[in-house]
Amino acid sequence: MTAQATDLPGPAALVRLRGVSTHFPVRSGFFGSLVGSPSAWVKAVDGVDLDIYPGEVFGVVGESGSGKTTLGRTILRLVEPMAGSVEYDGEDIAHWNEARLRPLRRQIQLVFQDPNAALNPAMTIGEGVAHPLRIHGLATSRADARRQAAEMLERVGIAPAGAFLDRYPDDLSGGQKQRVVIARALITRPRLVVADEPVAMLDMSVRAMILELMLDLQREFGLTYVFITHDLATAKFVCDRIAIMYLGKVVETGAAAPIYARPAHPYTTSLLGAVPRPDPSRRTRTKELPAGEVPDAVDPPRGCRFHPRCPKAFEPCGWEGRDVRDLFEARWAADPTAHERESPIVGPLGRVSVSPDAAVFPRGGERLRGLLEQLRAEAPDSGIWSAVRSISTDGGAVVVRFGPGPEPALQDVDHRQVACHLHGVTEAGAGR
Ligand SMILES: Nc1ncnc2c1ncn2[C@@H]1O[C@H](COP(=O)(O)OP(=O)(O)O)[C@@H](O)[C@H]1O
Ligand code: SF4
Ligand SMILES: [Mg+2]
Which of 6, 71, 124, 242 is 20 to 30 Å from 134 by CA-CA measure? Predict the structure, then answer.
């Protein structure tokens, strides 16, 4: 492991991502898959900037669904991003076709999560490990391929290799299979290895050994790793630098040690288990973590994507329809006379329909609109009202609409980069 300080001039990045977005079409129904354009997109990776330096272990960390695998597949160009640049060794490979990528494929390799799915059960261990040599023309003969495979197998701890070359994956334990997968990834002598949750499916008892092996191999072969994991403890053990992802975005990135010691993004703090107490003075609704699911990447929350779950959310972070309902709930709970006065005008709160950008009261008409305008006039620039764009009537219904709120951009904070308004309100894309 070599330390790579973020704030010192160092070598040129091996991988440099700028504004990378990889979205997948959501198609509905059988015919939807054949005709027309998709109606919606899963924003799996959405505007990511990263630099990965030669010789480092770079961790990509986040909950399931945050876009880690898609980011790894984009770096490997197993999927083509719809926007941004993916520079490998100074060349933008974002839109190279397969023929052009081919010579690069031996330099950038993947270690999968599931060794059972990664190994062809019909190929012997020797054939499987030697297979990439054949694809890339790196062996002079069958005997040479077998010799190279044996050498690499011994190096990853499958020894004596002679006893394993002619056996099949099914004869091996999970840990042994993953060693074989690692041997196959390294046999082409790659520069970059993307390891996607490489120990997540292994027994606890062998995880540490496989991680130690990966680190030994990294030093011995001078490898650069992109290490994908949902497990912060694993990342702490192996990574020099990390990027924390949430819903397709990097929310905090920098050297691992200071991020673990002093997380600067509320999401990182929550992942680390040090859940901050909600600060009631900042917002009308208290939020808890880890309560709440990761929202849908098809329609991420406006403003800061983390705001519906963030215990520190405040005015600029983003507001949505349900906050109007919560406002009345809180008001009425605090003041029974307000409840008496206002509930006949507002009607049952359960019937208010809410979405990320609006709350619709089914009835109430001009009287309700007047009440809402009056509440807004009392504090036009604070809390929920700072984000309300319009209050209008539609027949008897009353519609409260919200603006999006600025989307936090990465900014330098305490020797790392953090996307959170607590460190100064910024807007994503403003600098590009
Ligand atoms: N090939 C695909 N087609 C459609 N949606 C996908 C595809 N791959 C991933 N997704 C979606 O993209 C989001 C991110 O997924 P993924 O990159 O696998 O995240 P992670 O590895 O962090 O769990 C998820 O909502 C997932 O359902
Ligand atoms: S910008 Fe920061 S404080 Fe606001 S919701 Fe997002 S993470 Fe929380
Ligand atoms: Mg994944």
Answer: 71
Q: How far is residue 329's CA from residue 257's CA, in Å, rounded to a whole number?
A: 43
Q: Which of 53, 72, 51, 52 is nearest to 61 (CA)?
A: 72
Report which bound ligand comes closest to the CA of 27.
1
Q: How many CB atoms lie within 10 A of CB 121?
A: 9
- The mean pLDDT of 184-194, rounded to a whole number, is 97
Q: What integer is the mean pLDDT of 196-208?
A: 93
Q: H helices then E strands: how many in the chain?
A: 14, 16
Domains and CATH numbers, the chain: 15-259 (3.40.50.300), 321-402 (no CATH)
How much is the pLDDT for 89? 95
| Ligand 1 proximal residues by C-beta, below 6 Å | 24, 42, 44, 62, 64-70, 297
Ligand positioned closest to the Cα atom of 428: 2
Beta bridge partners of 194: 110, 226
For residue range 288-333, list pLDDT tens digits in order: 344 456 778 888 888 899 988 888 888 788 888 888 888 899 899 9
Start-to-end Cα distance in the chain: 33
At residue 229, φ and ψ (nearest 5 deg) are -155, 150
Task: Report the DSSP pairing between strands 83-88 and 249-255.
Answer: unpaired
- Report the nearest atom of ligand 2 relative to the CA of 316: 4
DSSP letter for each residue of 51-82: EE-TT-EEEEE-STTSSHHHHHHHHTTSS--S
Q: The tokens of 191 are what?
A: 């520069």
Q: Is 204 exposed, middle or buried (0-12, 13-18, 19+ CB in 10 A)?
A: exposed
- Indicate whether residue 410 lines ligand 2 (CB < 6 A): no
170's CB contacts (< 8 A; 6+ apart) are: 121
Per-residue model confidence as pLDDT tens digits over 388-418: 889 999 999 999 998 777 899 999 999 999 9
- The model's confidence at residue 276, banded by pLDDT at 50, 70 and 90, is very low
Per DSSP, helices labelled H in 85-203 are 98-105, 115-118, 125-135, 142-155, 174-186
- CA 124 to chain CA centroid, nearest Å: 36
- Quickly state the pLDDT bin for 187 (edges 50, 70, 90): very high
**Has this prediction a pTM greater than 0.70?**
yes
Strands 57-61 and 241-246, bridge-based pairing = parallel
The amino acid that residue 105 corresponds to is R
* Closest ligand 2 atom to Cα of 305: 6
CA 69 to ligand 1: nearest atom: 21
Residue with tokens 């397709």: 248
